[in-house]
């Protein structure tokens, strides 16, 4: 009995990986073994990057809130502590947006917690 290989599926699998490698430099874009490794590594970086993005955005929000709070004579930790004590449930993303784009609204929040 002849050996049966599913070349349709194999080709489709390779084609999918080669499509993902489009735009890579040198042999990474057109040599199967090199492209496969490059795509696998790229997927690892992408997965890790999605987690890091959340961290970096939170850090940015904290920095913006801190800058806005210090304009009104409070540190970040004092401001966040006062928010918790007064049961004001605004998340950091919203507070950072207020501090950056709507300073009068942020001032109103600060005045409410002082």
UniProtKB/TrEMBL annotation:
- Matching Gene3D superfamilies, A to Z? 6.10.160.10, Ribosomal protein L20
**Please, which domain of life does this record's source organism belong to?**
Bacteria
GO terms, biological process: ribosomal large subunit assembly; translation
- Could you state one GO cellular component term attached to this entry? ribonucleoprotein complex
Q: Which controlled-vocabulary keywords does the entry list? A: Ribonucleoprotein, Ribosomal protein, RNA-binding, rRNA-binding
Q: Does the keyword Ion transport apply?
A: no
Which terms does the record give in the GO molecular function aspect? rRNA binding; structural constituent of ribosome
| Any one Pfam family match given in the protein's UniProt record, by short name | Ribosomal_L20
InterPro entries (alphabetical): Ribosomal_bL20, RIBOSOMAL_L20_CS, Ribosomal_protein_bL20_C
What does the function comment of this entry state?
Answer: Binds directly to 23S ribosomal RNA and is necessary for the in vitro assembly process of the 50S ribosomal subunit. It is not involved in the protein synthesizing functions of that subunit.
Which NCBIfam families does this chain map to?
rplT_bact
The Swiss-Prot or TrEMBL record describes its family as follows: Belongs to the bacterial ribosomal protein bL20 family.
UniProt xrefs under PANTHER family: 39S RIBOSOMAL PROTEIN L20 (PTHR10986)
Q: What is this protein called?
A: Large ribosomal subunit protein bL20
State the species of origin.
Epilithonimonas xixisoli
- Gene designation: rplT
């Amino acid at each position: 009995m002849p050996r049966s290989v599913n070349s349709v599926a194999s080709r489709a699998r390779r084609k999918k990986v080669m499509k993902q490698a489009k735009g890579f430099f040198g042999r990474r874009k057109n040599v199967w073994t090199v492209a496969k490794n490059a795509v696998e590594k790229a997927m690892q970086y992408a997965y890790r990057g999605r987690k890091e993005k959340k961290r970096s955005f939170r850090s940015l929000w904290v920095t913006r809130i801190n800058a806005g709070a210090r304009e009104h004579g409070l540190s970040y930790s004092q401001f966040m502590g006062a928010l918790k004590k007064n049961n004001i449930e605004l998340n950091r993303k919203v507070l950072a947006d207020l501090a950056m784009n709507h300073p009068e609204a942020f001032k109103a929040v600060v005045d409410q917690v002082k």
